[in-house]
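Budget justification aside, the reviewers requested a transparent look at the raw inputs and outputs of the sequence design task funded under Objective 1. We therefore reproduce one unedited record. The lines immediately below are the structure tokens for a 455-residue chain.
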């Protein structure tokens, strides 16, 4: 059923305290909660729920916790524990009274992420952009000029080696056989327990002939278990589950792949992980997916984030990224500033300025082209302060959701920083002006300088 509304109780309760009585109205989270359009988010999320069944949790409660999770780089469990401790978290999520217990189980956040999908997370990102426009953190004219760059969002997998993949595949096949009471000719548990550590030691000692000999032996053991299990399943007519069939097919692909094979498997639990080389000296290969980030050229505020599987060429992702910017901001960018990796983009609706370009540049283009590097620290903040450094969510959908929610967290950090410092800056200016005028009155001089705020 659709999410229920947060009920408002006009009458006080004897043993419960209202949050408005203990929360500071000038706190940045309290002020930010009044700027975000929760009604439009509720309407956008409600379309993903059916009219039948029990009512779902209030959308503001769950979506607010998603915001706070990526704002402070927390896990699903940690954000709920901090919700119980912080009255500002509860105020931001739309609670009326202070809650002393966890509102729901952490797995509800997983179910909500799957339910709202990529479209729902785009609505969350669009809400942060609208809040920035209301607070005048960014100007509407800034949406006309954007900067686009790509990075790698690594998946939560270990560094892939053939020995680890063969051994993990063999163990999973043995588990399937025992689950269906299939007696294998041999499981090779004892043999592989001794071989796998030796392969790593041989590689470390640069004894590659011995390493390849034991690796070939390990691959043979996995292949025998795979063929034995396949024969018995077909002979006995055993019905395997979908997950077990996927494991069998993945191990079959793993045994056939070579050094130069395409669409290689780097992880059995995340088979769609790509190997991406970005030319970094300290990290030659990264295993995950490519993420494109679009920011405003002036304020470096994120207006688009999209993940791409299959390691596509950067130029082929630019048109799709600009379409997402238009969908989120309802503004078609006039100019886009990119690096040289976007040559051959084929975009016709937006004027694309590539780093190093000499011809056809205006004075504004030359100035804004120097701002192209402003997207790099934004990506650094997304990885250091957000959750873009490693994706713990499952599958390609998890890659897309993590990229969008990480962008939401970065925008919220910008908004909170602005709400924290902006009033103080205005107050400091007023105090400085009052002190200046008093000093002038004491000295008997006339006012010669205008007020910095124009009053």
């Amino acid at each position: 059923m659709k999410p229920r509304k947060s009920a408002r109780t006009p009458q006080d309760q004897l043993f419960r305290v209202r949050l408005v009585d203990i929360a500071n109205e000038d706190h940045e989270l309290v002020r930010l909660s009044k700027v975000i359009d929760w009604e439009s988010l509720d309407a956008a999320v409600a379309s993903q729920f059916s009219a039948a069944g029990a009512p779902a949790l209030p959308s503001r409660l769950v979506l607010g916790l998603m915001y706070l999770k990526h704002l402070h780089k927390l896990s699903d469990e940690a954000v709920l524990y901090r919700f119980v401790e912080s009255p500002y978290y509860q105020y931001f999520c739309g609670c009326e009274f202070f809650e002393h217990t966890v509102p729901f189980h952490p797995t509800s956040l997983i179910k909500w992420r799957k339910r709202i999908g990529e479209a729902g997370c785009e609505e969350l990102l669009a809400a942060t952009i609208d809040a920035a426009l209301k607070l005048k953190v960014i100007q509407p004219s800034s949406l006309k000029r954007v900067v686009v760059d790509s990075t790698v969002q690594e998946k939560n997998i270990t560094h892939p080696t053939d020995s680890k993949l063969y051994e993990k595949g063999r163990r999973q096949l043995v588990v399937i056989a025992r689950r269906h009471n299939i007696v294998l000719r041999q499981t090779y548990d004892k043999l592989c327990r001794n071989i796998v550590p030796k392969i790593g030691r041989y590689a470390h000692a640069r004894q590659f002939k011995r390493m390849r000999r034991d690796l070939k032996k390990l691959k043979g053991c996995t292949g025998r278990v795979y063929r034995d299990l396949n024969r018995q399943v077909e002979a006995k007519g055993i019905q395997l589950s979908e997950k077990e069939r996927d494991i069998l097919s993945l191990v079959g692909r793993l045994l056939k792949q070579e050094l130069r094979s395409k669409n290689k498997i780097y992880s059995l639990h995340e088979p769609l992980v790509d190997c991406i080389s970005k030319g970094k000296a300290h990290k030659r290969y990264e295993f995950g997916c490519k993420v494109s980030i679009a920011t405003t050229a002036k304020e470096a505020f994120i207006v688009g984030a999209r993940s791409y599987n299959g390691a596509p060429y950067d130029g082929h992702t630019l048109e799709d990224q600009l379409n997402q910017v238009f969908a989120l901001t309802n503004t078609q960018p006039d100019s886009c500033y990119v690096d040289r990796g976007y040559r051959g983009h084929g975009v016709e609706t937006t004027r694309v300025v590539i780093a190093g370009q000499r011809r056809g540049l205006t004075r504004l283009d030359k100035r804004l082209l120097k701002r192209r590097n402003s997207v790099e620290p934004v990506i650094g903040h997304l990885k250091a302060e957000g959750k873009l450094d490693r994706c713990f969510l499952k599958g390609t959908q998890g890659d897309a959701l993590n990229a969008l929610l990480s962008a939401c967290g970065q925008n919220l950090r910008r908004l909170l920083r602005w709400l924290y410092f902006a009033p103080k800056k205005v107050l400091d200016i007023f105090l400085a002006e009052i002190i200046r005028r008093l000093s002038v009155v004491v000295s008997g001089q006339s006012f010669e300088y205008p007020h910095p705020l124009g009053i």
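The chain has 15 helices and seven strands. Confidence is low (pLDDT under 50) at residues 447-455. Computational costs for records of this kind are itemized in the attached budget.
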